[in-house]
Every structure is written in C-alpha cells, then in structure tokens.
Amino acid sequence: MRDILIAVLIVDSLSLIGLILLQRGKGAEAGAAFGGGGGASDTLFGSGGSATFLSRLTAALAIVFFLTTMGLAYYSAKREAPKSAVESVVEQTAPKKEAPAVPGSAPQQEKVPDVPK
Fold first, then answer.
1. How many CB atoms lie within 10 A of CB 105?
2. What is the pLDDT of residue 115?
3. What is the b/e burial string over 69-85, where b = at least 16 CB atoms within 10 angstroms of the residue's CB?
4. Which residues have C-beta within 8 Å of that of residue 112, sequence separation ≥ 6?
C-alpha cells in the first residue's frame, strides 16, 4: 500500500507542477497564452476561459496531493520504530548479573535441613 501511495504522489506532483506551469499570470490574456485571439481559448476551454478549468484541475490535484501525503504519514506512524543502535548493542552485550559470592560463606542448599529434636 505504501508503494502505491508513493507512486500516486509522484505522478500527482509532476502533474501539479506541469499544470501550474501551464497557467497564465493574472495580467496575461488567455489568447496570448495560446497564440492568437480569444477564439482559440474559447473553443478549447469553453466560454469561461482557461482560468476556471485550470484552477479547478489544480485544486483537484492539490487535494489528491494532500490526501496521499496524509496517507503516507499515517502508514509511517503506524509502523514500528526501529531500535537505536545504542539500545541494540546494550541489549546484546549486557551480561546477566548474578549475586557475587561472599568469601567464606557456605554454598546455598536448596532444601532446608530438619531441625533435630
């Protein structure tokens, strides 16, 4: 699932970049962007011009971009974090501690001897 989200994010990002580069500035006319009078842009994008079509498509691609980004963030947070290098080395090399033997003491017996009567 993560790989699919990454692929969608890459395609969406490149499409969004290309679409933004296609858009005209606020001061430019739609006819100048397509080489001539306003007739070419009217037939290509309808009577509203290119601004509404391209801005709606940009908004749709931006929504897809944010949704895939949030999906990737969700899957990354859900994944178990790897241990740090220090923690893994400490766990591997830490010896099991046993109580030190006191010199001159008798070894521990498992069964307690009976008390004579």
1. 7
2. 77
3. eebbeeeeeeeeeeeee
4. none
Write the DSSP assignment of 18-83 as a string of letters. HHHHHSPPSSS-HHHHTTSSHHHHHHHH-TT-HHHHHHHHHHHHHHHHHHHHHHHHHHHHHSPPPP
Q: Which residue has the tokens 């037939």?
A: 43
- Domain boundaries, given as residue ranges, for the chain: 49-81
State how far the alpha carbon of 61 is from the alpha carbons of 18, 32, 105, in Å. Answer: 11, 25, 79
Q: Mind listing the pLDDT tens digit for each residue in 62-101? A: 999 999 999 999 988 887 666 677 766 666 665 666 666 6
